[in-house]
Amino acid sequence: MPSSTARAVIDLDVTGPTISKHLYGHFAEHLGRCIYGGFWVGEDSPIPNEGGLRLDVVEALRALEIPNLRWPGGCFADAYHWRDGVGRKQDRPVMVNSLWGDVEENNHFGTHEFLALCDLLGAEPYVNGNVGSGTVQEMSEWVEYLTRDGDSPMVRLRKANGREKPWRVPFWGIGNEAWGCGGHMRADTYADLASRYATFLHNHDGNELYRIAAGAADDDLAWTEALMKVVSCLGCTSRPRDIFQAISFHYYSFAGDGISKGSATEFTDEQYYRTMLKASAIDRVIAGHSAVMDAYDPHRRVGLVCDEWGTWWEAAPGTNPRFLYQQNTLRDALVASLHFDIFHKHAARLRMANIAQTVNVLQAMILTDDDGGLVLTPTYHVFAMNKGHQDAASVPVHVVEKPAAVTMGDDELAPLSVSASTKDGNVLVSLSNLALDTDTTVRLDLRGRAVTAARARILTADKPQRHNSTTAPDTVAPADLAVTLRPGALGATELIAVLAPHSFATVELSLT
């Protein structure tokens, strides 16, 4: 097997911006089997549940320490009217989900069920409001219903529906993809609407809202600029107007032929590398949005949020194509690991990210079936191995010797990706070897702090098409990785690790 070498310097005593735990957020939409059959099985299901919420799914996600969960969409948010999903279940009207499969939904999973799910997960709720087909009053009253104490019409309604005390609900999305399924608006039109909606989303009883304006697709920087003009002016140094606190964007990865093209499990080497090139380009996209925002907000008080990201393939054969159910391979896991290194790099501006989606849809953490089967995907394992980065201080990594780039026409892919952070006297280093047929010996020069121990794990398989199933749940699963620690030059410590082709590894360092 071909091999390559790489060397990186990590200054353990130098720290950068904090990597917000919310970069590890998740997304659950009323789409396919994400909610019904994923999170929600109903109180009468033989599958163990608490109030209808599937407990094996909850347990698996609690292990990831997921920081926030976005709901009810997505495109579905702009067709959802929250009053239809509160009160006695038998009184809730059936709705037609015309966006995703034209199926009928009984509204048994609504606001109270979502907040109960967040409580079980220990995750902060991220509620996406309806701008496309709703009203300012409707969304304002939803905020009041959820977060106000004391007495008011919405408080009385909440109490009548069984909840005495308000919830803490910090994150609110002002519509979704207003340039597309959320209304096909022009940027200036939506910017005015976002300002109007945000004005009437009030803080109640100490619940401070983090209002997120629906932003661009990919690298539409003009959309971001239109929203920044609402809160600031070009070159201003004063604090931005406190209308919304963040701007989102969405970014999906695929093999070059477009979203929803190509098999999730059968792909060529070229398609693999095209996927990695698309995933790596989110670095350029984040940098572009950040540059626009810096021009209006140099102190970076307004956050950037990537509240939909992940891979998007053809639906699995034999499934409803509008349910967006796809298998999840090692290729998908490496898209996730690469994204996280890039997210860490931009931690000064990027405040939140939400993978699409959590269960049974697109790049899911978990796949379930109606018989009680549950599969942890390779992407799940990346989240688990990386969770030590949450709310840790980023640590600079300087790759001083790089493996040869992979060339695809005019494009070049750097096959090694690295990031590091420190928290509570420990350091976590993440390493991805994206090369298909080359192992890489990585030498890390660890400087500035004494390293007393190292523990490493690796996620790989014999080929990137490998995935997990109910009959083979551990085809792609973490394993221990042997590493060498030895004295380096000038008092540093040298760590040596060999990364197999198409692999992701983490190294936990103990410091003195």
From TrEMBL:
It comes from the Bacteria. This is non-reducing end alpha-L-arabinofuranosidase. Its EC number is 3.2.1.55. Transmembrane segments: none annotated. InterPro entries: Alpha-L-AF_C, ASD1_cat, GH, Glyco_hydro_b. Keywords: Carbohydrate metabolism, Glycosidase, Hydrolase. Belongs to the glycosyl hydrolase 51 family. Residues 307-503 form the Alpha-L-arabinofuranosidase C-terminal domain. It catalyses: Hydrolysis of terminal non-reducing alpha-L-arabinofuranoside residues in alpha-L-arabinosides. Pfam families: Alpha-L-AF_C (PF06964), ASD1_dom (PF22848). The keyword Hydrolase applies. Homohexamer; trimer of dimers. It comes from Pseudonocardia yunnanensis.
